[in-house]
Design goal:
Layout (H helix, E strand, L loop, with lengths): L3 E4 L4 H14 L4 E5 L12 E4 L5 H11 L3 E4 L5 H6 L1 H21 L4 E3 L2 E2 L23 H20 L3 E2 L1 E3 L1 E3 L12 H11 L3 E3 L7 E5 H13 L11 E2 L3 E3 L1 H9 L7 E3 L4 H6 L8 H7 L7 H11 L6
Parallel strand pairs: 1-2, 1-4, 2-3, 4-5, 5-7, 6-8, 8-12, 9-11, 10-14
Antiparallel strand pairs: 11-13
Length: 315
């Protein structure tokens, strides 16, 4: 059986991806890790280890002892938080990835998954239907680290044969975890405020259109890519991925269909500059052609699902 290690499992993506992996492979085969021991309570369906991925000696011991065959490396400092602590963000994002790639090479792991982001793009990137291959001049430390990480992933595949796979996620929206410090997190927080009957203060302009994706589609895309035959994975840097594109005004109007008294105001802050440097929409035709990617949710379907399920979810 394949032993799977999830690094940064308690985050927004990790919380839901780890559950899906456990459902597929069995909880005994999945080891969730996170920096804080307090995260253990989230993972009663699989094994859990408190792990600081920067403690490379402890991480290597765990990988070797458990005979890990697949790693999902999700730990990262996100865009907005990274701008406040740029050197820390660079060290964590880059050193941890290089460590995982080295472990995969040394122990001949079967697969590695590492997420990239639309943050690799920059102000000189084509903003509409941003192509797979184009100018990338990111202006955040998060984006710079993701761009460098893509190059390292492709290098380890070409040089050492490490089967590393990656997706450039758009903004991810889910109701099973709280916002984690990303520029697109307004689209998570807005649903919490709507259900609480509170006015929402948005840190982006109402017309700031960005590529977005509902978490079930992100999980589906990740698993589809990881389960695809190696010969179908033709891009080893990172695949463009798209679900939907909308601005804060559009998501507000979608919520109004269910909560007609909901109110919003706009107070753009430093995150507006980050959002302005990112694409409005993404061309993900390579993912569709190579391994059959297709999203399931549009904006109104996502809104309906979140507003129905969020009140019953316990954090």
């Amino acid at each position: 059986m394949e032993k799977i290690l999830v690094i940064g499992a308690a985050g927004q993506l990790g919380s839901e991806l780890t559950k899906s992996l456990s459902d597929i492979y069995g909880g005994d085969q999945v080891i969730a890790t996170d920096l804080h021991e307090s995260a253990r309570s989230k993972f009663d369906y699989c094994r859990f280890e408190a792990l600081d991925i920067m403690d490379q000696a402890k991480a290597k011991e765990l990988i070797q002892k458990e005979g890990i065959k697949q790693v999902y490396h999700l730990a990262a400092v996100l865009s907005a938080v990274g701008e406040k602590k740029p050197l820390f963000a660079w060290d964590l994002n880059m050193d941890s990835l290089l460590f995982v790639l080295e472990m995969a090479r040394e122990f001949k792991m079967e697969k590695v998954y590492w997420p990239s982001s639309i943050a690799v793009f920059g102000p000189n990137t084509p903003k509409i239907n941003t192509p797979q291959y184009c100018v990338k001049e990111p202006n955040t430390v998060y984006g710079i680290s993701k761009q460098a990480g893509e190059r390292w992933c492709e290098y380890y595949f070409q040089k050492y044969g490490v089967d590393v796979r990656s997706l450039r996620y758009p903004g991810l929206i889910g109701y099973k975890s709280l916002p984690g410090g990303g520029t697109t997190d307004y689209a998570v927080d807005i649903y919490h405020k709507a259900l609480a009957g509170e006015k929402f203060t948005c840190f982006l302009r109402e017309d700031s259109s960005l590529p977005m994706m509902y978490m079930p589609d992100a999980i589906k895309a990740t698993l589809d890519l990881m389960h695809a035959p190696s010969e179908s994975v033709k891009i080893r840097s990172s695949y463009n991925l798209s679900g939907m594109s909308f601005d804060p005004k559009a998501i507000y109007e979608s919520i109004l269909k269910f909560h007609p008294d909901f109110e919003i105001e706009y107070q753009p802050d430093f995150r507006q500059g980050i959002a302005d440097s990112w694409p409005d929409s993404i061309d993900d035709s390579c993912a569709r052609k190579d391994w059959g990617w297709k999203p399931d949710f549009d904006l109104d379907e996502m809104t309906k699902d979140i507003l129905e399920n969020l009140p019953n979810f316990k954090f």
